[in-house]
Design a protein that fits this description.
The complex is a heterodimer. Chain A folds into three domains: about 170 residues, P-loop containing nucleotide triphosphate hydrolases (Rossmann fold), CATH 3.40.50; about 35 residues, no CATH class; about 80 residues. Chain A is about 50% helix and about 15% strand. In chain A, the strands form three sheets. A five-stranded parallel beta sheet of chain A has the order 2-5-8-1-9, sandwiched between helices. A two-stranded antiparallel ribbon of chain A has the order 3-4. In chain A, strands 6-7 form a two-stranded antiparallel ribbon. In chain A, strand 6 and strand 7 form a beta hairpin. The radius of gyration of chain A is 24 Å and the shape is elongated. Chain B has a six-stranded mixed beta sheet, sandwiched between helices. In chain B, strands 1-3-2 form a three-stranded antiparallel beta sheet. Chain B is globular. Classes of the chains: A alpha/beta, B alpha/beta. Chains A and B meet through helix 3, helix 6, helix 10 and strand 9 of A and helix 2, helix 3, strand 1, helix 10 and helix 14 of B.
Chain lengths: ~300, ~450
């Protein structure tokens, strides 16, 4: 159908695993990641077109989890590249193991052997970083490459990454060109600390993950905190939803809801009240000012029967 | 999803297979008109996506199209409006008249909006599109040059000290030329990347090993590397409220120059709300950039809510990383309509994130200035420098303050003399002839501009 379409077995397997959007959504739910129709559609298209998927959203809405769950669904390794300021090819793609090379040279020397350059720059001395591992993944299905928080890397790295992903191959001067037999499924996440280059956006499918509705959040947190009571989960979801609407600097994400529910369950709290909120506020709100804002508004506001 | 009301639907769902090219074409065109960036490749992707996803319901079609076409959350509103205008709204909420939806309901994205506004105003098409009117614009520019035939030295001198609130239009054009010569270089910071350097503090194993092969495996010469340095981000926040109106045009030119000074600069304007201008200003033609910027901000010359604007900046941009380690320049007279407490609180937050904060207040240049406005008073403890910037001469001082390296000033005699004053921020004293009277107890309390080495050097 298109030049970018993966052909052969791999594509067949993916098509079989994910024949349509509903199946994908169901399989994601099986691994405890609930997707709405928008995210399911984006993911489906990303798998089948195939095209990298760029996920954005507030911190803690489950962008990284989406990539992890996708790998689980496809039963394929997740290769994660955490980006940071100043990340470069040596940390993302490959590097030679210099200490080992130096040692080998000395060792060979003491034995009176000579170590040729071909040996020294052979696969044994290559440290494979995430991008190379993703390209070299032998199959049978492509690996899921999660490029996390790409906005933290700098523009140069963005360009480098794009080039690599478009080609699905990399040239190591000493070894030659390594071409991916199974080009990875790529999920990029960004927290929007800076605008990504248009070239990146042009090549990706895009989805903004919003905060879930309280009902959906209850389902999500209960799946993550096993054995938690539904009443408590509902109360937590409602309280968190109110916090998001209030004037806090860092609105709590789903991750915080999960942490909070886990903390409350651990403490044996059965029903959320002001005292329990007071004790555990630190697991939802991580800024002193935010806690003050919420306390000033009254903790009773967050618990049922308050208002 | 059932569609009871569908008077405007151009394409029925059942006919999609037949009308695929038509559908893709129509939607792409409408989206393009609404200011989204639609390339032929995108349209082709959409066509392919439709063959993969059976659009059995409008909702499915909606999400498919949105995945492909939308690449920024601010585009969602515009996209929704176009989608509704093409396919009807099928109970998706608001009843939108298609035509209105296409032209009125717009995304908070400033760029498309400004582009469209400007385009409607009959001046410039969006950038990148060859314009048949380019010739005309050139003519306009020529005209401007006729008015100011030659920048004579004396004229330039006069202009340098001319207050921004008393400028003639042709002087503004000339001023732009002066401003674009200003070098706005922020201080450097170490990045995590390395580059080779003879006196680097780290050993570059890769090159050392390479070299050692030539000497029989003995690393005789150690290759070195050091951390690469990069310029800090520059973030400019400009007040465009009523009280700042006389300066707004000149400052907008300044912002344009700053935004053009490198990829690492961001520009915002605020009065009652905050508008990000970085994209609008990213144009090679300053005239067009300023037009776009003017169209992008809806609150020109209205009241000032500095506290709210700062809060919005902190919440939406600063905290996420834009302000972290950056040099923040705020251009405002500090006249606050809202609560000065909020200004203080948000400035404190900003100060925790930023490398340094420079406040440019044109009123400082006026004789007998003293800090009286509540907003300014509240902000002052958190500023590293207060400069006047009321004329070009003063703006060069702003550029100097922006570029000040806090530590690298050591050893520079000029800097030592400059920092010799007792005021911790003497280095940022406004232009000669103006005075800054500070109420006691309101000096800047941030120690960062007062390097402890001053006394060392003096001895």
């Amino acid at each position: 159908m298109s030049p970018r379409e993966v052909t052969g077995e791999a594509a067949g397997e993916i098509r079989q695993l994910v024949p349509d959007i509903e199946t994908l959504a169901r399989r994601m739910a099986d691994v405890d990641y609930l997707v709405d129709e928008g995210l399911a559609t984006s993911m489906f298209l990303s798998l089948r077109l195939p095209q990298p998927l760029l996920l954005e959203g507030e911190a803690g809405v489950g962008k990284t989890e989406a990539g992890k769950s996708l790998a689980l669904v496809l039963d394929t390794p997740l290769i994660r590249l955490q980006c940071y300021d100043g990340i470069d090819a040596a940390e993302a793609l490959y590097e030679w193991n210099y200490p080992r090379q130096l040692l080998s040279i000395r060792l060979a020397d003491s034995r009176g052997e000579t170590l040729g350059e071909e040996e020294l720059f052979g696969p044994n001395y290559l440290i494979r970083r995430p991008l190379l591992r993703a390209l070299e993944h032998p199959g049978p299905r492509p690996a899921v490459l999660l490029v996390d928080e790409i906005d933290r890397a700098d523009d140069d790295f963005e360009a480098f990454l794009l080039e690599l992903l478009a080609e699905a191959s990399v040239t190591i001067p000493e070894l030659g060109t390594i071409r991916a037999t199974h080009p990875p499924i790529i999920v990029l996440t960004s927290n929007r600390t800076r605008d990504l280059h248009d070239a990146v956006k042009r090549r990706c499918l895009y989805h903004w993950i919003p905060y879930p509705t309280p009902e959906r959040e209850v389902e999500i947190v209960r799946r993550r905190v096993k054995g938690s009571s539904e009443t408590l989960a509902v109360q937590v979801a409602n309280a968190v939803s109110r916090m998001r609407d209030s004037d806090v600097q860092k609105p709590p994400g789903i991750a915080e809801s999960i942490d909070w529910l886990a903390a409350l369950s651990l403490l044996g709290v059965e029903r959320l009240d002001a005292a329990a909120v007071d004790l555990t506020l630190g697991s939802v709100l991580k800024y002193g000012e935010d806690q003050e804002v919420i306390r000033a508004a009254g903790l009773e506001q967050l618990v049922p029967g308050g208002d | 999803m059932t569609d009871a009301r569908e008077p405007d639907a151009v394409f029925g769902v059942e006919t999609i297979d037949l009308d695929l090219p038509l559908l893709v074409g129509a939607l792409s065109r409408r989206l393009h008109e609404a200011g989204l960036r639609i390339t032929p490749a995108r349209a082709a992707d959409f066509a392919r996506a439709l063959t993969l996803v059976r659009p059995i319901a409008r909702r499915r079609l909606y999400w498919t199209a949105r995945s492909v076409f939308v690449s920024d959350p601010v585009q969602v509103n515009a996209f929704d409006a176009v989608f509704v205008s093409v396919f009807g709204n099928g109970g998706r909420g608001e009843e939108l008249e298609p035509e209105d939806a296409r032209t009125v309901a717009s995304a908070p994205d400033h760029r498309p909006e400004s582009e469209r506004n400007v385009a409607r105003g009959g001046s410039e098409p969006p950038d990148g599109v060859p314009s048949p009117r380019t010739g005309e614009r050139d003519a306009e520019e020529d005209q401007a040059e006729v008015e100011v035939p030659l920048a004579l030295a004396s004229d330039e001198e006069r202009l340098r000290s001319r207050s921004f609130d008393a400028l003639e239009p042709h002087e503004l054009a000339e001023l732009y030329r002066l401003m674009s010569r200003l070098e706005l270089a922020t201080p450097r910071r170490l990045t995590r990347r390395y580059e080779k350097g003879r006196h680097g503090e780290h050993i570059d194993l890769r090159r050392t090993l390479r070299a050692s092969l030539r000497t029989g495996g003995d690393p005789i010469r150690l290759a070195r590397r050091h951390r690469r340095v990069a310029r800090r981000r520059l973030v400019m926040l400009c007040d465009i409220s009523g009280s700042m109106e006389p300066y707004a045009r000149a400052y907008l030119q300044f912002l344009t120059c700053a935004a053009g000074s490198g990829p690492n600069a961001e520009a915002f304007v605020f009065a009652t709300r905050l508008t990000r201008l970085t994209r609008a200003l990213a144009s090679r033609s300053p005239e067009r950039a300023i037009q776009r910027a003017a169209a992008a901000a809806p609150d020109w010359s209205s009241g000032t809510r500095i506290g709210d604007a700062l809060k919005e900046f902190n919440d939406r941009h600063g905290r996420r990383g834009m302000a972290r380690g950056a040099v923040i320049v705020i251009l405002s007279d500090g006249w606050e309509r809202g609560d000065p407490m909020l200004v203080g609180r948000e400035m404190e937050r900003l100060a925790r994130l930023a490398h340094r904060i420079v406040w440019v207040n044109p009123r400082v240049g006026a004789g007998g200035f003293s800090v009286q406005s509540g907003g300014m008073l509240a902000a002052l403890p958190h500023c590293d420098a207060l400069v006047s910037g009321h004329n070009f001469q003063a703006l060069t001082e702003v550029a100097d303050v922006i570029g000040q390296e806090l530590r690298s000033r050591r050893g520079s005699p000029a800097a030592a003399v400059e920092a010799d004053g007792e005021e911790p921020w003497a280095s940022a004293t406004p232009v000669q002839g103006s005075s800054v009277a500070m109420p006691s107890g309101h000096g800047p309390s941030r120690g960062r501009t007062t390097p402890g080495w001053v006394t060392d050097d003096a001895e």
